[in-house]
Amino acid sequence: MATLDAGVWNKFGRSAAPARELAERKPNRPRLGPGRPIPFGAAVGPTLLIAAWVLGSASGTLDPETLPAPWTVAATAGDLLADGRLQSNLLTSVQRAGYGLVLGVAVGLVLALVAGLSRIGEALVDGPIQIKRAIPTLALIPLFIVWFGIGEEMKLLVITTSVAIPIYLNTHAYLRSVDARYVELAQTVGLSRWGFIHRIALPGSLPGFFLGLRLAVTIAWLALVVVEQVNATSGIGYLMTQARTYGQIDVIVVGLVIYGLLGLFGDLAVRAVERKALSWRQTLGD
Fold first, then answer.
1. Burial class of residue 251, CB neighbours in 10 A (0-12, 13-18, 19+)
2. CA dist., res. 97 & res. 133, Å (int)
3. Where are the alpha helices (DSSP H) in the chain?
4. Does this model's pTM top 0.70?
């Protein structure tokens, strides 16, 4: 509670003055919290990482045959941009990850609603999802190749199934954690099934959905790395595979940097949307 009743203080031999002071005091940021947001805080960690890379390369601590210097990687990226290979492969990778992410989010959300709002749906859906969660994506690729070949369908299916799992797990968990009092209130005021889903179930599951979406964005890129190294003819993963064949470590590092940046900016975008969609919440991170 925001204030304390004066009777509680009197019961323990204290005066009512502290209670009145607490009641009149304006709410401040908790001192036990993480503190005020740091401007551009998300860039601090990556900047320190790059700085350590620069210092290690300049001082000779890092062997250029093992990890090329940042300026070498930047020059290689410039060459790849100049001949157009980086743009074309990057576009292919973004399209694959984007299509798989959209389909996976849709599938995971629908399954979470089915399982979260119906005992029959949970009995049908939850078990197979838990089985898929326990099977690594790499273990499924040989089977998917036999079923669907080595074309785009196989790659899209791997990304979609990988993305659907975190969306389902987190959305389903938050759906089932909606306070039962809200369900009783919906029944009391006569909300329809759709009204209950629209006004109570979906808003209550949004924090879990966005948590799953943040994980899904990262998993989409992880799955993309895997599928683009399986008989692919385009994409950043294909570019890295060709570079490994010819011992071009600088090209491999360029690919890794691109994957890392895509994952970082994807997470930042989801967090920005989450802050807007859940602006009604007051949490420790606000």
1. buried
2. 19
3. 6-11, 17-24, 44-59, 70-82, 85-117, 119-134, 137-148, 152-176, 180-188, 193-196, 202-227, 236-245, 249-277
4. yes
Query: Which structure tokens are listed for 238?
Result: 């294909």
Q: Cα separation of 221 and 273, whole Å?
A: 19
Report the alpha-carbon distance of residue 165 to residue 212 in Å, rounded: 8
230 contact partners, CB below 8 Å, separation of at least 6: 141, 145, 150, 154, 155
Query: What does the pLDDT profile of the chain (286 residues) look like in tens digits?
Result: 333 344 433 443 444 444 455 445 545 555 666 667 777 667 788 888 888 988 988 888 888 888 888 898 899 999 989 988 889 889 988 998 999 999 999 999 999 999 888 889 888 998 889 888 888 877 888 888 888 887 788 888 989 999 999 999 999 988 888 777 877 777 787 777 777 777 888 888 888 899 999 999 989 988 888 888 777 778 888 888 888 888 888 899 998 899 888 888 888 898 888 888 887 776 655 5
CA distance 120 to 83: 56
CA distance 262 to 221: 8
Query: For residue 255, what are the contacts with CB-CB under 8 A and spacing of at least 6?
Result: 236, 237, 239, 240, 243
Q: Which amino acid is at 16?
A: A
Sign, Cα dihedral of 149, 152, 155, 161: negative
Burial 152-175 (b: 16+ CB within 10 A, else e): eebbbbbbbbbbbbbbbbbbbebb
